[in-house]
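Wait, can you check?
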Amino acid sequence: MSSTVELTKENFDQTVTDNEFVLIDFWASWCGPCKQFAPVYEKAAEENPDLVFGKVDTEAQPELAAAFGIQSIPTLMIVRDQVAVFAQPGALPEAALTDVIGQARNLDMDEVREAIAEQQAQEGQQAG
């Protein structure tokens, strides 16, 4: 039984809205590194049953890949409280994935939202 959820444009927003912590693996069936990363991702999903592990097949869901500017796969993205807190292309080794999950778990989301608000304010000033 897979502990990952297949994400589509139909269920993506609902999944990210309904869950505080979602990991997303952007992949394709023809991608060698994606195939290497799949068992690592699956194992992490089994070891973190409190988190949602989603997979986006970029071939079947090109709109989602485009919406997130995915240019190379696999790309791992972590969304907490509907904020993308991590995005990195490349197949992560197991230890690195475990580390990234730990770091994302330890984030203070109030601080993250403040930093985003400050960044957006600065960008607004520069644009004006």
